[in-house]
Amino acid sequence: MGTNTGTGAARGRLRERAVGPVCAVLAFCVVPAGLLAGPSAGWRAALPMTVAVLGALAVASLHTRDRIIPVAATAVAVSSAHGTLFGDPPTLETATGVATLVEITGLLLLVCLVARYAGTRQAFVLCTVLGALASTALLRLQLPPTVLEAAAQSSFFALGAIAAAATGGGLRALETRRIRAVHEARRSQRLQLAGDLHDFVAHDVSGIVVLAQAAQVIGADRPEEVLPLLQQIEASGLQALGSMDRTVHMLRSSDGTAPAGRDGTDASPQVAYGLADIVDAVDRFRAAGRAEVRLDMDRSPERTGRIPREVASTAHRVVVEALTNIRRHAGTAPWVIVSVTPGPARPRQVLTVSVTNGPPTSGETVGGRLGERERPGTSGLRGLAERARVLGGTLESGVHGEHGEHGWRVTAVLPLD
Predict the structure, then answer these.
(1) Which domain holds residue 112?
(2) 285-302, pLDDT tens digit by residue?
(3) Could you tell me if residue 223 is inside a domain?
(4) Which Enzyme Commission number(s) are on file for it (predicted)?
């Protein structure tokens, strides 16, 4: 999607660069044409024609400059009004009719451009004036016998101005929706970055907190065990920095999988998380705690390679979030089981991700101290539940167990199609 967006933006910039030279060439052609048409069509018809076409070309090529739209539209309106009110008597000469029709075309094009680029109030006023002039320009060729017929003729030709204004307004609406979509995409990227930092970095930071608390507890009685804990803290800190770098690279990449090189041939390694990263997350969780951790997952490359990238990334995030919440709210859980297994293909094949922990005990100081510092962690599960729904799956969490010994279980069911 990012590649398509970049290609579309490049094409748009190419079109914008081409409009200026094309309009300049046409302007150089219009001026000699107006001079040649003057003797046969009459200068009072050739001059408004030339000004109308030049004004439309000026707005088409220079609409981004301040004041160019009102200045060009005003000049065209004054010239056209002068030709209609103070021009030659109505005539059916061919040259005059052609010049008038070209002028009307220029006026309608200008109405479309003004509706597209001008401010809302400014566009309403200018389009009204220019549309009225375009609908009455034909009165120069033949004046109807009654005022009612003249009004009816002008009203009929005003439909062309209304259509031109509607076209310009439609293009403005499309551009507005495109800009809004870009802003929404950027907002979504920022929210995704925040979610990634919450899921990944918080997992590593919570491990650092557990290790630091353990070092404080055993530091006085068993100082020889502090050094290995400090080494684990260092490794967890480096892992947190690596998670931050990886998340930023995912945000910067063109398609969410690899950083984009200058020529699009950067052979950087894949940075999107997947099933293979679950093993590392579980190992780090096991090393930083005292719980017995078991991982039930087919680690063969043939199996993991068949899982869609978005499903694998979501499965990894579910595991990381669940393990992080166990550290925060059940630091004394005696055992944790992580299961990533394919489900039955009824009615479609799914990947079931489950993280279950045993009931916390009350005798461990480290887990109790961590529990006293709990912070709201359900926002991550809510975000992952929404992500699972987008993929067509479900995510549920709640207590489990019997005989009063209740642990916690998080289960995600993600379709593979």
Answers:
(1) 2-143
(2) 887 777 888 999 888 877
(3) yes
(4) 2.7.13.3
